[in-house]
Amino acid sequence: MLKLSVVVPFYNVQTYAPDALRSLELNAREDFEFLLVDDRSTDGTPALLERAAAALPGAVLLRRERNGGLATARNTGLDAARGEYVAFLDGDDWLAPGHLSRTLAAIEALNCDFVRTDHVQVTGRERVVQRVPYGPESVVADPRTGILPASRATAVDYPYAWAGMYHRRLLDRGLLHFTDGLRTAEDRPWIWRLHREAESFAAVGLPGTFYRRGISTSLTQIGDERQLDFIRAFDQVIAETAADRESELLIPKAVRTYCAIIAHHIGSIERFEPSVAKKLRSMSADALGRLPRAALDGALDSMDADRSALLRRLRRRTAPATVPAPGAAA
Q1: Which of 8, 88, 217, 261 could connect to 161 by a Cys-Cys bridge, CB 3.0–4.6 Å?
Q2: pLDDT, tens digit, 9 for 90 and up, residues 258-271
C-alpha cells in the first residue's frame, strides 16, 4: 500500500495551478500519490494537468465528465485513493517543501485518526499564520473535545480539509467523503462528522499549507446562487447533530454557528446579485424558523447586539400570524 494519497481538485485555475503542482513536486516521495482531479475545467487547466501527469512523480490524472463542484471532485479523488493516509490540497493553493512528510511523521508518531495543522493565509503579498483553535499541541484527544464550548471558536469551526491528514480507516468508515453537490460550506458537515464520530485526533501546528484568499476564481468571491448551499450544508449539520447521543449538549453550538454564518452573509448581502439576495433573505429566515426554539433563543442572546438584532429582524419574517381570541376586538 502507498503511504499517502493527496487529493487535489482543479477547476479553471490555470493562473494558480503551476504553484500547486510545483509544490507537489517539492513534496514528492516514491510512496506518495497525487490524485489530480480535473472538474471539467474550461480554461488552460487541463493542459497543465496533462503535462503534470507525465512529469510529476506519483501523479494520477482523473477527469470528471461534468463539473460537480469541490465536494464531488474531492469524492472522485477519495474513491481512487490507495494510501494508508489521505490529505487534501486545493488547486489554487500550495504547500511548503517537505510539508507532507512532516505531517505524516507527526500523525504516525501520535497514532491517531487525524491531525489538524495550522496554515498560512495569503492575501496579496500579506502572509498571516492561522492557528487551529484548540488547546494543547501534539496531544491525542477525543475529537468531541474540539466541539465545545458554544461561546467561542473551537476546532470544529476550523473546517479546512486541506489543513490536516487522515488515516485510511476514516475513509473505510465513510467519514472522509463529502456531501455530493454542495458548492460551498462543503467542509462544515464533514468536519462536524469527523469530530462526532472519529475516535482520536491532535492539533500539531506545522503551518505548511498556503491558502489564497480574495482571488477572483474563488467561490467565496462570487455572489451567485451557489453561495446559498451553505443553508443545505448547515441544515445537514443540525439534522445529524440532533441525532447524536449528546445532542442536547452539542446542538447549541451547531445552532450558534449556523446563526453566525447567516449573519455574515446577510451582513454582506450587497455582494450578491439582486435575485440571489432576495432568495438569501427568504431562505435564511426559513432556516431560522426551523431551528430548535430554545437553542436559537440562547444563540441570539449570546451574540453581539448588531448581529442579534439583524437575526431577530430576519426571524420575524417567518413568525406565525397571531390569531385573535374569540370575541376580541379586531
Answers
A1: 88
A2: 999 999 999 999 99
Non-local (6+) Cβ contacts of 11 within 8 A are 38, 39, 40, 41, 45, 67, 70, 73, 91
Which residues does 214 contact at the CB level (< 8 Å), separation at least 6?
123, 124, 221
Nearest CA-CA partner of 67 in 86, 40, 38, 32: 40
- The per-residue pLDDT for 287 is 98
Model confidence pLDDT, tens digit, residues 167-219 = 999 999 999 999 999 999 999 999 999 999 999 999 999 999 999 998 755 55
Which is more confidently placed, 324 or 259?
Answer: 259
Please report how the helices 229-242 and 274-290 are oriented relative to each other, as an axis angle in degrees rounded to 10.
10
Is the separation of the CB atoms in 197 and 112 below 8 Å? no
What span, in angstroms and rounded, lies between the C-alpha atoms of 133 and 113? Answer: 18
As a whole number of Å, the end-to-end CA separation of the chain is 76
Q: Which residues pair with 165 in a beta bridge?
A: 115
Q: What pLDDT score was predicted for residue 326?
A: 42
* pLDDT band of 224, cuts 50, 70, 90: confident
**Helices (H) and strands (E) in the chain — how many of each?**
11, 11
Specify the length of the chain in residues.
Answer: 330
Instruction: Please give the order of strands across the beta sheet that includes 126-130.
Output: 94-95, 209-212, 119-123, 126-130
The span from the CA of 107 to the CA of 105, in Å, is 6
Whether the CB-CB separation of 183 and 219 falls below 8 Å is answered with yes
The residue with cell 445532542 is 247
* Measured distance CA(163)–CA(225) in Å, rounded: 27
Collapsed DSSP state (helix, strand, coil) of residue 9: strand
What residues does 10 pair with on adjacent strands? 38
Above 70 in pLDDT, residue 315?
yes
Candidates 165, 180, 178; CA nearest to 67 is: 180
Residue keyed to cell 432576495: 278
Q: What angle do CA 190, 191, 196 make, to 5 degrees?
A: 100
Residue type, 22: R
